[in-house]
Design goal:
The protein is an alpha/beta fold. Among the domains are: 147 residues, 3-Layer(aba) Sandwich (Rossmann fold); 219 residues, 3-Layer(aba) Sandwich (Dimethylsulfoxide Reductase, domain 2), CATH 3.40.228; 131 residues, Barwin-like endoglucanases. It has 27 helices and 29 strands. A 7-stranded mixed beta sheet has the order 6-5-18-17-16-7-8, covered by helices on one side. Strands 22-26-23-25-24-29 form a 6-stranded mixed β-barrel. The chain has a 4-stranded antiparallel beta sheet with strand order 1-2-3-4. It is globular, with a radius of gyration of 25 Å. The relative contact order is 0.16. The structure holds ligand MGD (2 copies), iron/sulfur cluster and molybdenum atom (MO). One ligand MGD binds next to helix 16 and strand 17.
Length: 746
């Protein structure tokens, strides 16, 4: 058993990265035998500096949760019962085989969830799962989350995965919209200890402005907080752009020769003046102009929008406006502005700007004709594809680490659709609202039984940081890589008992071949360098050693390898984000295309809504996060869930008084999609006319096996969200700014 610090007893401390959110905090896990005794922040981790939140501190509770699945479950006579791994994979091979034979592979829907981004094995094995499914019915958390940013990054600078990350440690001015890192610990900005980093801002004279319909925990710490009507950020950001033009504050700086479309943008946003948007957004013109000047005047400034900017009716247009602001103020790819990450396991281009460009809509969805985006269809269209009869109707599902019945809009409809499937395989850790419908559940190993390297989130990190952790415990069952490999074989029709090594070897061969081709290193040298490692370590080492800081299998002495990294259990910090543009541009033109036709076309929707906005009296629903909760699934951990219910409807005191609702009263909330009974929490933190309910609750459905969560069920907010409205350019769901009615007290 690997360990970093041993003592006389079998007590040991092992260093681990927390797999629960994007912050990637270093943890010190104290273990005695097979038991986690305590989890602390690792103060020697140079990136997270000892920071930990209550979720990370309860990783041991999660590991030891008796409801966490350890054995596969297979449905027999209507009941999910324990089975061996062989039986489970044979059931999958047979069940999927039957569906493919009768209805074709297009009748399989694949749904990928948030936790896969936090694990190492899926980073490698999800792509071959997708290929093995052979279906275009692919859905993921991206279209209930950040898809608008992929589209904007793809169209403007040619790489959908090059997110503009606010350089929070070096910025002089951060304009933050629709994000609450004091609760979420940051998103599309991997920066552990955001509370500490935010606290450090005033020490160097940096300002934080938060724009949010709720005075959040982050807004409390800001220099300035502006309430905004939900869903109207696009108008307000357009007004900031207009103000830059009107007051001659545009200064693109270094990248000016590579920026196209400025005049077209000027024309499009011209009607959105600070004065014209004031009533709709709820922000007066003078404040708006002052914010535009502050952005332009700061030595380095960043505009950063997240969930409250992405999961709205105009998510793409909103992200577009934020990108335009960063570019027009010279803050794109500038230290202290927004930059793109340079992960240690990635590459850095040294050629001329330009590439293949980015396209969406290479194919369209069956029922509503939605364009594919990043190879996916909108989560909000999943129920249509499951319920609408005809060739290509989804009749089987593979859900991997996802709970669509709680996470996707119009969740009651999805719940009914999942109940009617012919066959459903889930790869999960609980029997929950979604997996209770499954025919086979494969239990994922505990995170503490797996190797860890944050491949996904290092791609969004504010520093080039590398850290590898060995498993804390030996796995009780097969490794996650083996489970994926056997799943791939079963999906390909190679049966339930085929050897996982077939897939591992295929993947390693493929990776070795690519490196040999691109770097001119002979295959034998590469294979020898990784000899003797388990497959997952081979795949990771190949990435590390062929990355921009790698040792290139010996030809770049001093470079990184997995072996070297393993000697640094607290991780290795290789510095802040670096300038990557214009070389990193992958658009066809080799330029930043500010006025991409798709975005210009989508702007018509924005203009139409501006002409007919929601009435001021219309109550709008938004969501929120809490530091002790994690999307739809950490509610079975007793110490996290204790105390007053956090699944309450926050309401401004005036709105509550108008409805004669007292704090703690139960009321009915109703939308076009559905209705719920919910407890009111009167709070001056809410903007008038806006109510807030967290998502991911509602754990009292029959058949769930999560005792603690069932006793603290809460209500499922996605009963209220509407799958008929989407951000059309990205296919993203609309989860914020939902028109609702809240009943008055009887
Ligand atoms: N109304 C509203 N809805 C929202 C949001 C919102 O703000 N408001 N936020 C959206 C966002 S940003 C996201 S990312 C989605 C998330 O939605 P999902 O992708 O559904 O992710 P989670 O809700 O985190 O559910 C995770 C699932 O994975 C399982 N799981 C946990 N750990 C593991 C593991 O290690 N391995 C495996 N195989 N399974 C595991 C859990 O039991 C659970 O079933 O929700 C979205 N839905
Ligand atoms: N503790 C905890 N941490 C998490 C998660 C969790 O569930 N719990 N989930 C993780 C995931 S999957 C993600 S994607 C990230 C998300 O990370 P964040 O984006 O920081 O998510 P939230 O905390 O939901 O913050 C969204 C904010 O948007 C505001 N808002 C809503 N509508 C609007 C609007 O129209 N305009 C503006 N300006 N603001 C609006 C809300 O009031 C809320 O404060 O968090 C991650 N971290
Ligand atoms: S903030 Fe909390 S949940 Fe997120 S990585 Fe750090 S300890 Fe884990
Ligand atoms: Mo998310």
């Amino acid at each position: 058993m690997p360990s970093n610090e041993n003592s006389v007893s079998d007590r040991r401390t092992q260093y681990r990265t927390c797999p629960l959110c994007e912050a990637t905090c270093g943890l010190a896990v104290e273990v005695e035998g097979e038991k986690v005794i305590r989890v602390r922040g690792d103060k020697d981790d140079p990136f997270s500096r000892g920071f930990i939140c209550p979720k990370g501190a309860n990783l041991g509770e999660l590991h030891h949760d008796p409801d966490r699945l350890r054995t596969p479950l297979v449905r027999r006579d209507g009941e999910l019962v324990e089975a061996t791994w062989d039986e489970a994979f044979e059931a999958i091979a047979a069940g999927m085989g039957r569906v493919f034979e009768t209805h074709g592979r297009e009748s399989l829907g694949l749904m990928l969830g948030n936790p896969i981004t936090h694990h190492l094995a899926p980073a490698f094995y999800v792509a071959p799962v997708v290929r093995a499914c052979g279906t275009r019915q692919i859905y993921s958390a991206s279209t209930v989350d950040q898809m608008p940013q992929h589209v904007v990054s793809g169209l403007l600078w040619g790489d959908p995965n090059a997110f503009p990350i606010p350089d929070i440690d070096r910025t002089d001015h951060l304009l933050m919209l629709g994000a609450n890192p004091m609760a979420s610990n940051g998103s599309l900005m991997t920066a552990p200890d955001l509370p500490g980093r935010i606290k450090d801002m005033p020490k160097r004279g940096a300002r934080l402005v938060v724009v949010d319909p709720r005075k959040t925990e982050t807004a409390e710490r800001a220099d300035e907080h502006l309430f905004i009507r939900p869903g109207t950020d696009v108008f307000w950001l357009a007004a900031l752009v207009t103000t830059l033009f009107e007051e001659e504050l545009v200064d693109i700086g270094r990248l000016e020769p590579w920026v196209e479309g400025v005049e077209e943008v000027r024309g499009l946003v011209a009607p959105f003046t600070a004065e014209n948007v004031a009533d709709v957004c709820g922000i007066d013109a003078e404040t708006t102009r002052r914010q535009a000047r502050a952005l332009a005047g700061a030595a380095a400034a960043a505009v950063y929008g997240r969930i409250g900017n992405h999961t709205v009716e105009f998510g793409t247009a909103t992200s577009w406006m934020a990108a335009i602001l960063n570019i027009l103020t010279g803050n794109f790819d500038r230290p202290g502005g927004v930059m793109t990450s340079s992960p240690v396991a990635g590459r850095i281009e040294d050629g001329e700007p330009g590439g293949k460009g980015y396209r969406t809509g290479r194919w369209a969805s069956r029922v509503k004709g939605h364009p594919e985006v990043n190879g996916e269809f909108p989560a909000a269209s999943l129920a249509d594809e499951m319920e609408t009869e005809g060739p290509g109707q989804i009749r089987a599902a593979l859900t991997i680490a996802t709970n669509p019945v709680r996470s996707y809009p119009n969740s009651e409809r999805l719940d009914r659709a999942f109940a009617k499937l012919d066959f459903h395989v889930a790869f999960d850790i609980y029997v929950n609202e979604t997996t209770r419908h499954a025919d086979v559940i494969l239990p994922a190993p505990s995170a503490l039984e797996e190797e860890c390297y944050e491949l996904t989130f290092m791609g969004n990190a504010i520093r080039s940081f590398a850290k590898y952790d060995e498993p804390v415990f030996e796995s009780e069952g097969p490794t996650e890589a083996d489970i994926f490999a056997r799943l791939i074989l079963a999906l390909r029709g190679e049966g339930g008992t085929a050897d996982a090594n077939l897939i591992h070897n295929e993947m390693i061969e493929h990776a070795v071949g690519r490196i040999a081709d691109s770097d001119g290193i002979d295959r034998e040298t590469i294979l020898k360098a990784i000899d003797g490692m388990p497959p997952i370590k081979k795949l990771l080492d190949l990435k590390l050693r062929s990355g921009w800081r790698g040792d290139l299998f010996g030809s770049r002495p001093g470079g990184i390898s997995l072996e070297k990294l393993a000697k640094h259990p607290h991780g290795v910090d290789l510095g802040p984000m670096v300038e990557r543009y214009p070389n990193r541009l992958k658009t066809e033109s080799g330029k930043i295309d500010l006025a991409s036709p798709l975005l210009v076309g989508d702007w018509e929707r924005v203009q139409e809504r501006f002409a007919a906005p929601n009435a001021a009296e219309q109550l709008l629903l938004i969501g929120r996060r809490h530091v002790r909760s994690n999307n739809s699934w950490m509610h079975n951990i007793g110490p996290l869930i204790s105390g007053r219910s956090r699944c309450t409807l926050l309401m401004n005191p005036e709105d509550a008084a108008e409805r004669r609702l007292d704090d703690g009263a139960t009321t009915q909330i109703k939308s076009r999609g559905g209705a719920l009974e919910v407890e009111v929490e009167v709070s001056p933190s809410m903007m008038k006319g806006v109510v807030s309910l967290p998502h991911g609750w509602g754990h009292d459905a029959p058949g769930i096996r999560m005792g603690v969560a069932q006793a603290n069920a809460g209500v499922p907010s996605n009963v209220l969200t509407d799958d008929r409205v989407i951000d059309t350019a990205s296919g993203n769901a609309v989860l914020n700014g939902i028109p609702v009615e809240v009943a008055a007290s009887a």
